[in-house]
């Protein structure tokens, strides 16, 4: 099978399992529990993707192995994620892109796929001449299976810094202008990952990095 990095759409979120199918946590303006699938509506999810693509462009990347979805990362300007209005720390620029979430199938975790997806997102944003990217991070490791955020340790190891601290959900920032020219072939990196998926289809868990693991 050939592995690929392609644009994210609602069909890919469904492909990683029920935890992401129709999830509109970040896209909802209602006050929600900070939990994956705390609000689900496949039609509204599809409408959100259509709107963002039309107004801003592709809003994520998905890694596939043939017709199997390995994982995805979702991002867009902060204004497209109204759930952020309920956070105590705010994104200072609503036009700046925000990495909302990244999910990877359980059997594909801890093998470098998270880094490939993050680098694919940053490469896309850098090519669009975006200057800064933000991400709410999960400071605790005890909720890693249920919270729709990327782990703080993982983001810090990949160049992010704390922009606005918070005990549970700090806001992190990365200056895209400081990145070196993109020379790494991410498609080749994806193809080289050792991902023993097998034939079982276990449900994925949010791809939130634990200290010491290697994606």
Features:
single chain, 9 strands, 215 residues, alpha+beta
Secondary-structure topology with pairs:
Elements: E1 3-7, H1 10-15, H2 42-55, E2 60-65, E3 68-77, E4 97-104, H3 113-127, E5 132-138, E6 150-151, H4 152-157, E7 161-164, E8 171-175, H5 186-192, E9 205-206
Parallel strand pairs: 4-5, 5-6
Antiparallel strand pairs: 1-2, 2-3, 3-4, 4-9, 5-8, 7-8
What does this 3D model show about the protein?
- This protein is an alpha+beta fold and 215 residues long.
- The chain has one domain: Aminopeptidase, CATH 3.40.630.30.
- It contains 5 helices and 9 strands, in the order βααβββαββαββαβ.
- The chain has helices at 10-15, 42-55, 113-127, 152-157, 186-192; strands at residues 3-7, 60-65, 68-77, 97-104, 132-138, 150-151, 161-164, 171-175, 205-206.
- Strands 1, 2, 3, 4, 5, 6, 7, 8 and 9 form a 9-stranded mixed beta sheet that branches.
